[in-house]
């Protein structure tokens, strides 16, 4: 029988509800849940492709010790023993957990409880340090608690949406669509995008402010001054509910309009227009994400924004407020359980003796951490110095995602005992673990997550546990029991943990803390199973309450008031003669972080299949790089080699590179190897968006492109990038050393069976080579090599893996690298949902389509998740402009 289960997407913080349907034959399909209030049925390309990422390929299914299979008992005993011994010999601060905003709340709660209450150390930090910690620090400074005041509905109701440091179109696509739809309905609604790059998000912007990197504080401090001078201050609100206005204004007053222009590099007209819009519009929402948080001035950027909303009283009312967009599916849940090294639990403060006493009594724990633990960057530095004897990494891949990644890798290697809980066997981090524990993945695990608007939703299992995989919370509880904490970790199901978490949130709360979900204390397994998405707060005995905070004050500082913070712009330019470019790093539409899941989908990998760096055309020209050439990017910490993508979307002097690629998918593209560990002084969040680098042309003897049925084995080339493709794999190549015999190289890398002879040629003069291997009518592998970047149509070549090659002429066409007239090359994929390529869109425009909608009618492109609509518009506009010339 077919089974349909309502659950939540495991990717971004939008927290879309999905329905997973398991057909009788086991086939899974995933659609948007029309009833879920976060997305009302919509999904982006990643959510739509979920079913393609849940196969067991590459999964770790049994515990391993030192690379050999082990039983759960043996592995868990060993982990408990190593942690216990380290604590006994070196004290509680000699052990650490490094966890993740992708854990479920129940996993996270148990990890935090074990470390802070039972080990007695606060050495538990999370990848949220790299993600949300500046927002947390800014919220706590201003509000006295880490409170996101608004809701998604505010995005529908606002008359002005400011998106700063957010590439919403690619990173929170369903919210982007929501804003785009609101704007289409009410054309008076304005959108301002603040980003040094012209991203796809800027496509819906009335105003795009391409500020210089890290000059946000100047921009918002200038805005604060402007609001004051233009009578936009809500005097009643400021007097009744805030403190510190005078100091903040004094600090802001020192920054003139001219100074803002100079620092940000904006044209005066644009800056004036932004200030005018913000001043004149009551209903303003300011959304911010990593362009704000991931900065050495991240916390100040957050408070500079909050100051403007507090001064105007535009907070917590419909259509108004600051809005920190969370990245990971459970970034918020992690904050609720206190997963950061400087938090306690249930939004209580580790610095407060009362809070510590309260939590300890609630847990009936033998100890309680009495000081903040090591923040991620400090943690790995302490490890490098030998101060951490045992480490447990769960649901994160720090060898890829931490700044100074090579030093982090060395620190992990140097740590005497490292446990990694993951779902994938081969990751850049897991390869250095002493013990690898197989976790349950999405679809197999159950629990809750909290999205950006404080909405708690269930993730429900719809697949059986594969192999011996075990839920993360259960792994933790098993180890805790083996460490002697039997009663406190006697959980048998996630509902019990959730109920305890709810009880702690309500414990001696009485309105003193924002996070309170006491209404769910004592819920049983059935109630947990049926739990509908709800927003916190939801205190005991109360029906659904107001879902916004602070419209009438009620802040969480002791005096109930919010604080203005006096912030001042800091110098932002890190470049120098040796490292003259500013490297900015971030995300692309169709990959999720270190690609362990999205990298499995051919569809998602077809949008952008290689690591790249975006360069301004003039910069590219000056360093002698043409389009599709290779570029080497270097800082004092490390280097990468990636494809050059030349575009005017990029400002001069700046380079953008994605964070996703790693040693599993490319030769040398781990961008965090280049990023130094510079952090925000208050939050400890790394500055991943402003790195001084050198960029130069990377010269190769031969470029190559190949498609293969089997996963290529160790290409051993200076540049390679591997991606899943329909029917097999695709491989981009660059060789610096001569290869004696291309055919032999192909045989080894594509695992060609003995006796299969290549079809093709090698031109001794040019060094070009084209080789194809067939098994009957099936293409096993084809490889194209040239002195220049290989011009073969990629999607066409990939299609040959699934084509019938009984016909000899077809085989020769393949070797020639030319599509036949019967099968035109669709071009690079634009719409991942329907697999529509750029050439098809161009053809549709030539055929009379004049708009994105018209293209959608003909090709379906852009009609599902819509996250490619901006790109389609670019192609349409480009064609129409070319036709008009
Ligand atoms: N497709 C996809 N979506 C994701 C993720 C993913 O891996 N893939 N990850 C999720 C996670 S965990 C997160 S945290 C979010 C991140 O979501 P976003 O923060 O939207 O994504 P980023 O690409 O990291 O950075 C956003 C933008 O900040 C800009 N920026 C850089 N420097 C500055 C600056 O000084 N000032 C300003 N104003 N802007 C600047 C960058 O150019 C970039 O366009 O995405 C979530 N969604
Ligand atoms: N240069 C640069 N660096 C960055 C950023 C940037 O913008 N620029 N962004 C930062 C940000 S915001 C973030 S959030 C981080 C993200 O960086 P990471 O957290 O390191 O990236 P992920 O690939 O999401 O890692 C999740 C890991 O958990 C595994 N996993 C998946 N499901 C489960 C499960 O249920 N249980 C367990 N135990 N494991 C599971 C996955 O296979 C994967 O190995 O990167 C940060 N690093
Ligand atoms: S916007 Fe996309 S990635 Fe984010 S939760 Fe929704 S479907 Fe998942
Ligand atoms: Mo993140």
Written account of the structure:
- This protein is an alpha/beta fold.
- 31% of the residues lie in helices and 19% in strands.
- The chain has 30 helices and 34 strands.
- Strands 5-4-16-15-14-6-7 form a seven-stranded mixed beta sheet, with helices on one face. Strands 22-24-23-26-21-25 form a six-stranded mixed beta sheet.
- A hairpin with a 2-residue loop joins strand 28 and strand 29.
- Helix 4 packs across helix 14 (298-311), helix 8 packs parallel to helix 14 and helix 17 (376-384) packs across helix 19.
- The chain is globular and about 80 Å long.
- The model has no long low-confidence stretch (mean pLDDT 95).
- Bound molecules: ligand MGD (2 copies), iron/sulfur cluster and molybdenum atom.
- Residues 131, 327-328 line the site of molybdenum atom.
Topology:
Elements: E1 3-8, E2 17-22, E3 28-32, H1 45-48, E4 64-65, E5 68-69, H2 72-90, E6 95-99, H3 105-119, E7 124-126, H4 133-143, H5 153-157, E8 160-164, H6 168-171, H7 173-185, E9 190-194, E10 207-209, H8 216-229, H9 235-241, E11 242-243, H10 245-253, H11 257-264, H12 268-280, E12 284-288, H13 290-293, H14 298-311, E13 321-324, H15 331-337, H16 353-363, H17 376-384, E14 390-394, H18 398-401, H19 405-414, E15 417-422, E16 435-438, E17 447-450, E18 455-459, H20 472-482, H21 494-506, H22 525-530, E19 534-535, E20 562-563, E21 581-586, H23 602-605, E22 612-615, H24 617-622, E23 630-634, E24 639-646, E25 654-658, E26 691-697, E27 702-708, E28 719-725, E29 728-735, H25 742-749, E30 758-762, E31 769-775, E32 778-786, H26 794-799, H27 808-816, E33 829-831, E34 836-837, H28 838-846, H29 852-859, H30 869-884
Parallel strand pairs: 6-7, 6-14, 8-9, 8-12, 9-10, 11-20, 12-13, 14-15, 15-16, 21-25, 22-24
Antiparallel strand pairs: 1-2, 2-3, 4-5, 4-16, 17-18, 18-19, 21-26, 23-24, 23-26, 27-29, 27-32, 28-29, 30-31, 31-32, 33-34
Helix pairs in contact: 2-20, 3-15, 3-20, 3-21, 4-14, 8-10, 8-11, 8-14, 17-19, 28-30
Bound molecules: ligand MGD (2 copies), iron/sulfur cluster and molybdenum atom.
């Amino acid at each position: 029988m077919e089974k349909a289960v309502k659950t939540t997407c495991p990717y971004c913080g939008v927290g879309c509800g999905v329905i997973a349907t398991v057909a009788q034959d086991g086939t899974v399909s995933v659609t948007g849940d029309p009833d879920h209030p976060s997305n009302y049925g919509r999904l982006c390309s990643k959510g739509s492709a979920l079913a393609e990422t849940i196969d067991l390929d590459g999964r770790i299914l049994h515990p391993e010790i030192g690379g050999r299979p082990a039983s759960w008992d043996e592995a868990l005993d060993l982990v408990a023993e190593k942690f216990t011994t380290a604590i006994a010999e070196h004290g509680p601060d000699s052990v650490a957990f490094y966890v993740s905003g992708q854990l479920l709340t129940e996993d996270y709660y148990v990890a935090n409880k074990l470390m802070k209450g039972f080990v007695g150390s606060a050495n538990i930090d999370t990848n949220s340090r790299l993600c949300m910690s500046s927002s947390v620090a800014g919220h706590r400074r201003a509000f006295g608690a880490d409170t996101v005041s608004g809701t998604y509905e505010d995005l529908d109701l606002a008359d002005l949406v400011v998106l700063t440091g957010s590439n919403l179109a690619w990173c929170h696509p369903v919210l982007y669509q929501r804003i785009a739809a609101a704007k289409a309905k009410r054309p008076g609604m304005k959108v301002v995008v603040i980003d040094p790059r012209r991203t796809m998000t800027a496509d819906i912007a009335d105003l795009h402010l391409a500020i210089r990197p890290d000059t946000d504080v100047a921009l918002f401090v200038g805005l604060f001054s402007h609001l004051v001078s233009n009578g936009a201050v809500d005097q009643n609100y400021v007097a009744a509910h805030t403190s510190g206005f005078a100091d903040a204004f004094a600090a802001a007053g020192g920054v003139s309009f001219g100074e803002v222009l100079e620092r940000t590099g904006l044209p005066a007209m644009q800056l004036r227009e932004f200030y005018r819009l913000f001043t004149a519009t009551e209903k303003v929402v300011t959304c911010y994400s990593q362009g704000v948080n991931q900065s050495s001035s991240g916390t100040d950027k957050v408070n500079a924004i909050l100051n403007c909303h507090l001064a105007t009283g535009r907070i917590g009312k419909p259509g108004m407020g600051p809005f920190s967009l969370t990245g990971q599916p459970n970034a918020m849940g992690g904050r609720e359980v206190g997963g950061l090294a400087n938090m306690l639990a249930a939004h209580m403060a580790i610095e407060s003796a009362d809070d510590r006493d309260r939590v300890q009594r609630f847990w009936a724990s033998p100890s309680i951490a009495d000081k903040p633990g090591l923040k991620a960057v400090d943690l790995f530095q302490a490890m490098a110095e030998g101060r951490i004897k045992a480490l447990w990494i769960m649901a994160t891949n720090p060898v890829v995602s931490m700044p100074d990644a090579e030093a982090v890798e060395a620190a992990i290697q140097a740590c005497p005992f490292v446990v990694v809980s993951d779902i994938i066997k081969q990751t850049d981090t897991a390869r250095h673990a002493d013990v690898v524990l197989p976790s349950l993945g999405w679809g197999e695990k159950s629990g809750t997550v909290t999205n950006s608007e404080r909405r708690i939703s269930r993730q429900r299992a719809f697949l059986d546990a594969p192999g011996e995989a075990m839920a993360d919370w259960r792994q933790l509880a098993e180890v805790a029991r083996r460490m002697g904490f039997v009663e406190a970790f006697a959980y048998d199901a996630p509902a019990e943990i959730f109920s305890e978490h709810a009880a702690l949130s309500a414990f001696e709360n009485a309105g003193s803390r924002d996070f309170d979900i006491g209404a769910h204390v004592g819920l049983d397994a059935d109630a947990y199973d049926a739990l509908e998405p709800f927003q916190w707060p939801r205190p005991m005995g109360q029906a659904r309450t107001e879902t916004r905070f602070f419209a009438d004050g009620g802040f969480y500082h002791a005096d109930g008031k919010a604080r203005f913070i006096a912030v001042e712009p800091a110098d932002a330019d890190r470049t120098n003669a040796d490292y003259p470019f500013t490297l900015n790093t971030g995300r692309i539409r169709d990959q999720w972080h270190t690609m362990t899941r999205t990298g499995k989908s051919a569809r998602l990998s077809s949008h952008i299949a290689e690591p790249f760096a975006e360069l301004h055309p003039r910069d590219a020209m000056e360093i002698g790089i043409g389009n599709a050439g290779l570029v080497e990017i270097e800082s004092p910490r490390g280097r990468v080699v990636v494809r050059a993508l030349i575009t005017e979307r990029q400002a001069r002097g700046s380079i953008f590179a994605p964070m996703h690629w790693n040693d599993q998918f490319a030769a040398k593209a781990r961008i965090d190897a280049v990023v130094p560990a510079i952090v925000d002084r208050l939050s400890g969040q790394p500055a991943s968006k402003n790195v001084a680098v050198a960029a130069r042309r990377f010269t190769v003897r031969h470029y190559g492109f190949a498609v293969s049925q089997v996963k290529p084995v160790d290409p051993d080339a200076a540049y390679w990038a591997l991606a899943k493709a329909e029917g097999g794999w695709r491989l981009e190549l660059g060789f610096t050393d001569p290869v004696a015999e291309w055919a032999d190289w192909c045989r080894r890398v594509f695992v060609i069976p003995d006796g299969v002879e290549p079809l093709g040629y090698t031109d001794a003069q040019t060094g070009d080579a084209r080789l194809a291997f067939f098994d009957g009518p099936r293409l096993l592998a084809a490889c194209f090599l040239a002195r220049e970047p290989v011009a073969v149509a990629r999607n066409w070549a990939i299609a040959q893996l699934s084509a019938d090659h009984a016909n000899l002429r077809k085989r020769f066409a393949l070797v020639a690298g030319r599509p036949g007239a019967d099968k035109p090359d669709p071009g690079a994929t634009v719409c991942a949902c329907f697999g529509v390529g750029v050439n098809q869109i161009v053809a549709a425009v030539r055929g009379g389509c004049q708009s994105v909608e018209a293209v959608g009618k003909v090709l379906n492109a852009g009609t599902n998740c819509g996250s490619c609509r901006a790109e389609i518009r670019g192609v349409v506009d480009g064609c129409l402009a070319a036709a008009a010339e």
